[in-house]
Amino acid sequence: MNFRSIISERERNLPGTMIGRLLRMAEESRSVISLGPGEPDFCAPMYVIDAMKRAVSTCETHYSPTSGRKELKEAIVRKLKRENKIDASPENVIVTNGSTEAIMLSLMCLVDPGEEVLVPDPGFLGYIPTIELLNGFAVSVPLRQSENFQMTGDAIRAQIVNPKKLRAIIINTPGNPTGTVLKKRALEEIADVAIEYNVPILSDEAYERFVYGSAKHVSIASLNGMEDYVVTFQSFSKTFAMPGFRIGYAVGPKPLIEAMSKLHIYTTLCAPTPSQMAATVALNDTKNAKKSVGAMVMEYARRRRLILKRLREIKGFRVDNPEGAFYLFPSFQFKKRMTSAELVEWMIRNARVSAVPGSEFGRYGEGYVRFSYATAYDLIEKAMDRLESAAKKM
């Protein structure tokens, strides 16, 4: 049977991606150093792995409640109060297969065909396709390098053409791919827009623990009066280096969380039970959590200093001072005019270094490249040596 002829229009309309082709190019040569990863290169903390082993060995391998295990939701509520200044109860929480699923469930509950969602651009590459899968319209809010990629109230208002069709505003802090940490003042402006237009904010905070220097992560739901407007998404994938465990969660107003739980029944039913038990230990053992997460943040900060210094020494790249996540997002201008995809292809062929084209993150990402420092320090150093040498010959 020719399945190509019956694949749905929904799938065919999804945007293609350059990442797959460029990854295949990089894989053809084992000598290519990848600065493209969007996941930690660390192993999950041993105390979390031990908890996972205990869960499996004691036959905790059955389904969990759709919205998540009671013990985990209670641990999340305590964490939100302790670290994010968000007051919630377990009924405000849903545990999902990573925070990406939580974002999708929320959009499935909020967006009908023809309705609009404002998204940061450049922004996480999953936002726009998810909205389009629902036959909604993703409206880009341009983020400017000249403004340190801050998402402002004025920038959002400029994109609101038909308020009756607007269903949500997505924000991401610290940001992927830009590494931007939204300032409290910017968050207050965004909150004012949400209240003015009576529209929810979907706040993606997967990189919340990875901030550097004097930067501070602020959850917009912690601002006065915003608990009824905000759905906060957080994840164990980045914070605890647990991407393969597939555990994330959302916290928000009870009616939306109940609706998301209903949809969850018909998507994946529940998050993996052993992973939920490991995640509960990850949060409850605050001493080990502080030690293990702190060590990762310190190492990321060390790598960040290295790659910032080295990229700034390579003529053709302009990189500012991203304060969060584990990405740099420099603009580029070389004698040879290239798109971001062409530049990454050139890097793979001539410097044996790979990264992610800015165009993967929205139309305003063109002219930029995302470098990840979720890669060993010595490999980053070697990659910068190669890139510097190749750039001199361009």
Report what the structure shows:
- This protein is of the alpha/beta class.
- The chain has two domains: 3-44 and 289-392, Aspartate Aminotransferase, domain 1 (Alpha-Beta Complex), CATH 3.90.1150.10; 48-285, Type I PLP-dependent aspartate aminotransferase-like (Major domain) (Aspartate Aminotransferase, domain 2), CATH 3.40.640.10.
- The protein is built from 14 helices and 14 strands.
- It has helices spanning 9-12, 18-28, 46-57, 70-84, 98-110, 127-133, 153-157, 184-197, 236-239, 254-267, 273-284, 286-312, 340-350, 377-392, and strands at 33-34, 93-96, 116-121, 137-142, 166-172, 201-204, 230-235, 248-251, 317-318, 327-328, 331-332, 353-354, 356-357, 369-372.
- The strands form four sheets. The protein has a seven-stranded mixed sheet with strand order 2-8-7-6-5-3-4, sandwiched between helices. A three-stranded antiparallel sheet has the order 10-14-13. Strands 1-12 form a two-stranded parallel ribbon.
- α3 packs across α11, α4 runs parallel beside α11 (273-284) and α12 packs parallel to α14 (377-392).
- The relative contact order is 0.17.
- The mean pLDDT is 95.
Low-confidence stretches: none
Q: Quick one: biggest sheet?
A: 7 strands, mixed
**Count of discrete domains:** 2
Total strands: 14
Strand order of the main beta sheet, please? 2-8-7-6-5-3-4
Oligomer kind: single chain
CATH topology tier name of the largest domain: Aspartate Aminotransferase, domain 2
Please tell me the CATH architecture of the largest domain by its name.
Answer: 3-Layer(aba) Sandwich
- The shape is globular
